[in-house]
Design goal:
By secondary structure, the protein is of the alpha/beta class. Among the domains are: 1-82, Conserved hypothetical protein from pyrococcus furiosus pfu- 392566-001, ParB domain (Alpha-Beta Complex); 212-289. Helix content is 59%, strand content 10%. The chain has helices at 29-39, 60-68, 83-96, 102-115, 121-128, 132-140, 146-153, 159-163, 170-183, 187-205, 215-246, 251-290, and strands at 6-11, 15-16, 45-50, 53-58, 73-78, 293-294, 309-310. Strand 3 and strand 4 form a beta hairpin. Helix 4 (102-115) packs across helix 6 (132-140). The longest helix has 40 residues, at 251-290. The radius of gyration is 28 Å and the shape is elongated.
Length: 312
Amino acid sequence: MGQLGIFEDLEISKIDFAKNGLRVNVGSIEELASSIAEKGLLQPIVVRVLGDRYEVVAGNRRLSACKLLKWRKILCHIIELDDRESYEVSLIENVQHKTLNPIEEAMAFKRYVEEFGWGGVSVLAEKIGRSQEYVSRRIQLLQLPGKVQEKIMRRRISAGIAQELLSIDDKTAEKLAEMIENNHIKRNEVRQIVKSVKKVNLRESDKEPNTPPTYEEVLGVTDGALRKCITILKSTLLRIDDVISEIEDDWITQEMLMQYRLIVHGDIDAFLRLRKRLENKRRATYTSNTGGKIDTSVHDDDSLYMYRGVWQ
């Protein structure tokens, strides 16, 4: 911590919780209290002198647990710190021990940089031993809608996946976050879905107000929805394969999963055939509208059936 300080057993009644606490969700104090009762306080809390009392710098949860156990005194590491140093010590300890969820980190970083004005992103990154990109990306998470932030705090979706949702509108981000949570969609799959959504939104923004969508646009939106379904089903197929490989000795369950695998595979084929039919309609529409010819040398790809007009 860069400060030696002293160690002393202090009266708990003389210690106040940190005024700039970092944690929104302190977790189960009862569980921590039970552990301390059984094993003792393995690490003293860090405090500073503030007036005629002491203030916690690091260890709010440990202090709460000891209060719950009705301890009269607690071992403290007393250090001389100003407000900024106190906040930095608390932040460093929590980041190093990974006790904060991504949103709590983001809020703590933003307060340091913007509310308190103690330094920019580069200064904070150096203080806590993280990259500037790490700090910036954490702060960006606060731009997401509240419902998505709640899922991150509850660790229903990861910060990395949530980062992909920053470029779309709040309502779509909330719906997509729900889908990610329920279907355990991977980050690269989320990135592809977001790209499709942005393409649809871009087309809609170019239209005149109250202009009904063109036939081509309707086909494009439908195709995007089908691609999402195919992505989810393919991901499901891979997970089924993983489960099958893990239960080699249970042939009955294996057989049941193989049957379900065939059903999922059939659904994927059905969606691919439907996409093919839609693409044929799109090609026909494109040709009739432009007078161009379709380049039949372009190979079909089950992730995206490409097309282009070749002018005479």
